[in-house]
Structure formats: C-alpha cells, structure tokens
Amino acid sequence: MGLKDIGEFGFIRRISRGCLIRETGVVRAIGDDAAAVTGDPDQLTLVTTDLLVERVHFLRESTTGAELGHKSLAVNLSDIAAMGGFARDAFISLAIPENCSIDFLDAFYDGMKALAVEFDVNILGGDTTRSKQDLVINIAVIGSIFEAQLLLRSGAKPGDIIVTTGFLGDSRAGLHLILNQIETDTPALRELRRAHVLPKPYLREGRFLAETGSVTSAIDTSDGLSSDIRHIAEESAVGVRLYADQIPVSDHLTAFCKDIQEDPVLWALSGGEDYTLLCTVAPENVASVCRDYEEKFASPLYRIGEIITERKMELVLADGEIRAFEALGWDHFRPGIA
Amino acid sequence: MGLKDIGEFGFIRRISRGCLIRETGVVRAIGDDAAAVTGDPDQLTLVTTDLLVERVHFLRESTTGAELGHKSLAVNLSDIAAMGGFARDAFISLAIPENCSIDFLDAFYDGMKALAVEFDVNILGGDTTRSKQDLVINIAVIGSIFEAQLLLRSGAKPGDIIVTTGFLGDSRAGLHLILNQIETDTPALRELRRAHVLPKPYLREGRFLAETGSVTSAIDTSDGLSSDIRHIAEESAVGVRLYADQIPVSDHLTAFCKDIQEDPVLWALSGGEDYTLLCTVAPENVASVCRDYEEKFASPLYRIGEIITERKMELVLADGEIRAFEALGWDHFRPGIA
Predict the structure, then answer these.
(1) What is the value of pTM for the model shown?
(2) More confident site: B327 or B7
(3) Are A152 and B125 a contacting pair at CB < 8 A?
(4) Nearest-CA distance from B27 to chain A in Å?
(5) In what order do the strands lie in the sheet with B313-316?
C-alpha cells in the first residue's frame, strides 16, 4: 500500500494516533493551521531544527523505518539536551517519494513515538508532502528552560575541565559498517551499528548538568569531538587541551580499529554523530559533579581535557608529546576525513 | 562560487547578517544548539512548519531566489495569520544541491529577510546541509496569541457568513503560466505570475479579525477554496453554501480564463496557494466587521457564502441552480484537477 491509496489527509489521520503524549498546556495539536501551546511563564522557549536527507544522512535501504524515526527525533532532542532544557513538542515534516511504503512510514512514526513517550515529548504538527526522489525529514523541537540554567557554548573559562557523557567514535564506526556493507555478525559490530542508527539523547543528563550550576558551556557531539570542542573554544574565546588517553573509547571501537589498522582516538576525535554531551565544568566543582553524576546515572562523566587561555587546540598523547589538532569533523559542504 | 568554496560555517556566517530584526526577548539567536527566547506569559505559543521541495512545489529555473525566499517564509506566516497570531521567529532549514549557486542562495535569503523585516519576524536558526539533487526548504515559524483571540477551524456555526480577504484562483493561473512556459508579456499575466510566486501573508488582517471577537473560524487558502472550506466544515461539523457570483475573481483571471476557455469560478474553487484568509463571521456582526476591515485595509472583505446546518457543500450558481461540490483542491499524494 502506498500513500496514493490513502491520500495526504488519510495519512495525517493515520499518523496522528499516539502523538499527544502530555495534554497539559496543549490548546491545539495536529489539525489546524498551527499548533497552540501554553508556556511556563518562568521559562525560556528553546527551538531547534534538523534536516535529514536520504543519500546524505542515511541510506533508506540500510536502515529500518523505526531506526530512522528514532534517530530523526533523537538528534533534535540532543540539541535541547545540549542547552540543558526540557524537550516539549516536536513538529515533523516529511517529503515522501512514491517508492516509500506505508509500512516503512508507519515504522518511522512508531520509532519516533517510542522515543517521544520515553522523553514525554508531544508530536503536535508538521507538514507532509511529496518528493520526486529522496525521502527528506525535517523535525523542529520546542523545549523550555529556566534562564539561569541555560547552557551555552560561550561560557568556558581557562582552567575549566572538559567532560563528556559517553563513548566517542562508535557512531563513525557504525557508519563505516553501513557504507561498506559489512555484516554486523558479532555483538560488538552490532553495538557499533546501533550507536549510529539509534543514538541516545542525553536529555536527563543535560538537565542534571544544567541544575548543578557548575557547567560553564555545553554542546552535543554531532559534528565530531574535534569540531564540536572547537565551537566551544571559538564561542568562548579560549583554547583547548585534550588528553588522548582520557578520551572514552569503547572496547568495541578498539577491537574494530585494530582489525582495520586505524587509531581509535582519531576516530573518536573526527567521528561525528555520537550525540554525547560535551561540557566544561568549573574546576572547583568538577569532583562533586562527576561523583553525583555517576551516582545518578550509573555511568561516568569522562574528563577528557581542560580549557586553556591561549587560543589553540592541542592534543596530549600518552607519551606526553603535544600535537596541535584541527577541527577534523564533518562540514556538510567540504570533504571530511573519511 | 559554490558552497564548497566557503563551507557550512562560512555559509552560516554569511547568511546570519540581518537575521535579528527585533532583539527584545531573544536570549540566544543563530549560533548555539538551539535558539532561546522569552515569551509573553499572557500569550499562547503558536508553531507551524512548511516543507517546500524542488520539482514538487517549485521549479528552480522558473523562479528567482528572492521570490523563492519570499514565498517559503510567506506560506508559514500565512499559517500564523490564519490563527490570528503575531509571527515572531523563523527557523530555516535548507538541503542544498551542488549546482545551487551562492548567488541564488543570497537572493533567497534577501527575499526572505525583506519579508521578515516587513512583519518584524526574527530569523533565529535552522539547519543547513547538502542534498543529492533537489533543493529542499523547511521553515518553522513561532508565533504568539492571546488565547481568547485564537482563531481555530472548528468554531463555525450555522448562519455564520463566510468571508475571504482577496482574489482566488490567480495563483493557480500563475502556476499554469509557469508550467506551460507562457511568457508573461502583459501586466495582467505578470500579476497572475506574481500572485503565485510572491503571495501576501495576511498577518495584519488576521490580527484585526482575531481582535474583532466576531470571527468563529479561520483557515488560509493554501489547498484551494473548496478544499479549505471543507476543513472548516469538517472541523466545525457543519455544511457550507457558497455563491458562485460572490467569489472574488480578479479581472486578470477572468481575461486569462476567457482566453483559454475555462471557468474562472472553477479555478477560484480548485486553485490553491492564494493564501487569503477564509473565515466565518457571526451574522449579527458581519456588517460592522466588513465596514471596519475595509476602512482599515482599503480593501473589501468578500462575503462568499454561509454556514448551513446540513453537512453538505453546495454552490449556488448565478441562475439560482444549486450544485453539490467536492473538495477540488490539492492533495499532495493524489492527482489534482489540473
């Protein structure tokens, strides 16, 4: 069955089920010219949007609909997490080619709705239209935050400790598996693929970090560690020193890189789409923040470096050698490292 | 010069100029993981989003960048207008193919910014990425409105008078000219093309209508009069009677239809993308609303029919004959009338 059989409005009725997860404050959901919601008068409104294009961000034949739905929403929730905010409402725009089945789209919405339920996010609208060739997905997410807790990219100060919430480089390895059609026939390879197609939005962690009052800047690792930390450095007018042996690399990535004779630290630095949070923490509070974080989330907050005064980016290798590093991450219009 | 020459971040720096039109309440604009704005605690937040895809919604070779930028934003502002709201902030996502020049994109942003200035709308973020083939544009617009003034599709009552704010069918004729590559070598043809590529968002008119307290439902004519009035009928659980000789048709459209031996009323009924406001007004107040509207905007509020109890849609012809009419407008997944 295809979209032609049920039409645009039939499709909208079909996908609207299960979209309203939290009714409080929703005056108008899907079905009018715009959605209408009440806000918390004490909080700022956050807005982020991300566009995913077939053959640029994903290969439709290499992903399930559910994975794609999860990821499309997750990357937006990650942006709200990186501001320290609560995610509230999502708006889904789809341009759908004729060869995209209703089954795939149902799975897409199911994957998205499962994540929306997990994080108490409403799906309140969007737009649905045709595409001549590629499936295109744009999601906009509205969030909220108390202004005093807002995490920007611009507040890092010399001496601050750089931390991140999870492994880096796994997603890049997962992408490598997909692009090279390598079968994920071991648990380790499946984990790497999973890191790429089902990224975790660190929303609860972002809220926790915002509430500590000790986080001076934050970003999510979407373009790659080297590129994302550079955004913090530039916006904060500071420099960065990272320690190669402190960058969290999973055993899966280490084993994978050994097989293909690559350096996992380079993959962690240059790989994108891990969507961990990358923050700077005031040095006097970093011990207690890390302790409380680990207690709450049963997972470490990895300390990977520090902010320095001089505006340069350097990587300290295990033997103490210091190397300058460039932003190695993903720029959508320029060739990447891979 | 292409995007490869300046990169994603160079492009973002380039387009960011002139995006912040109204600084009040903007805590973070372009350049962080999300935008952060303060809201008016007395007002609801409105959110709408529209996706425009090359070869589905526009032909890149048949439009200027400035026209495309204007229209992409205008269709979103129109949705806010149809709720009766103030438009506040816009978020622009672009998927850009390699053969799209920086000149075209600069013109696109210039066209959008000119409209944003006219309606005091900030451009506060978005996403920029590559596309393999088609230029894809998604815009999300945030607006606000006092809850008591909210115009929904669902409030029409039997006896209410149906009104609209401008000519219908012109945009459809303009599309015909473009698709058939008919040269717009007369002022009349240029006006028809203009109606299609530079639609006017009726934001001020929407605010006026919302403030009257007499408008019971509203929508904008994006899919076509017959289709859009049907949304009101369905959401309000009522029927509709339109009068063929009261539907506002421009002299340009009449002349154009005469040439091609078509009925202009059918074009007005089935053509989409006029983006006039289509409202129902309580009968006891319609005279004063129309008078005040005309005085304020120096343009009539056209009365085109009335809401009836029986859930059917009928068109009264000039000779008194009554015909049932279907929703003839645009459904993105089904063949249209044209």
Answers:
(1) 0.94
(2) B7
(3) no
(4) 8
(5) B215-220, B277-281, B161-164, B302-308, B239-243, B313-316, B322-324
